[in-house]
Design a protein that fits this description.
Length: about 210
């Protein structure tokens, strides 16, 4: 059985990354960090998203992220889907802060409803089949564009999006090469998916 239980980001400075994510988003248990200088250029092929209850929470989290050292990629704006924006963390990871709500119902609470790992893949149908064969259950599926898997008790949701569409949504060019600089913990046995994303056992990821 495979489930996305731990996200490990490969960064140049693990202590700095821990400080950034605690200060920016209040994330202290959902991420692990591993020192790495593996070359990576351009879009790394994934984004991480924080979905929150209302626009005030998006603005609050983006504000503290920028104060902690992030840079703006797409300023927060309204869209037909809700409200959101994207920032780049100092380690290079792209984060989207978003809500389906278009109006505030009260002051910002900074409550995070979900952490979502979006993998940009070449063939959504093929990658969907690959993950289903490893025990993941499909929660939502929109043809060959997007697939979201059931999270169960996992703190991180996993979803697949076409690489070019994901890059466009994030506000960056789709080209990129080198290491993804991320590993996912929760596999029964280590494996690498069709787009080069590495999965580790939970025990191995916990030692990061």
């Amino acid at each position: 059985m495979t489930n996305s239980e731990i996200i490990t980001l490969e960064v140049a400075d693990t202590a700095a990354a821990e400080r950034f994510y605690a200060d920016a988003f209040g994330l202290t248990t959902q991420l692990r960090f591993r020192a790495s200088d593996a070359p990576s250029t351009g879009f790394r092929g994934f984004t991480l998203s924080l979905t929150v209850p209302q626009p005030a929470d998006v603005d609050s989290l983006i504000g503290t992220a920028l104060e902690a050292g992030a840079t703006t990629i797409k300023p927060a704006t309204k869209s037909m889907w809700g409200y959101g924006g994207t920032v780049r963390a100092p380690d290079g990871t792209i984060w989207k802060l978003a809500t389906s709500a278009k109006k505030n119902t009260g002051p910002a609470t900074r409550k995070i409803d979900a952490v979502v790992l979006l993998l940009g893949v070449a063939d959504v149908a093929a990658s969907k089949k690959f993950y289903v064969e490893r025990g993941l259950a499909v929660g939502k599926s929109f043809g060959k564009m997007y697939v979201e898997f059931e999270a169960g008790s996992s703190p991180v949701k996993l979803a697949l999006y076409r690489r070019k569409a994901l890059a466009k949504d994030a506000g960056v060019a789709p080209e990129g090469s080198g290491s993804h600089r991320i590993a996912v913990g929760g596999a029964a046995e280590p494996f690498t998916d069709p787009d080069g994303f590495a999965w580790e056992t939970t025990a191995a990821a916990s030692r990061s």
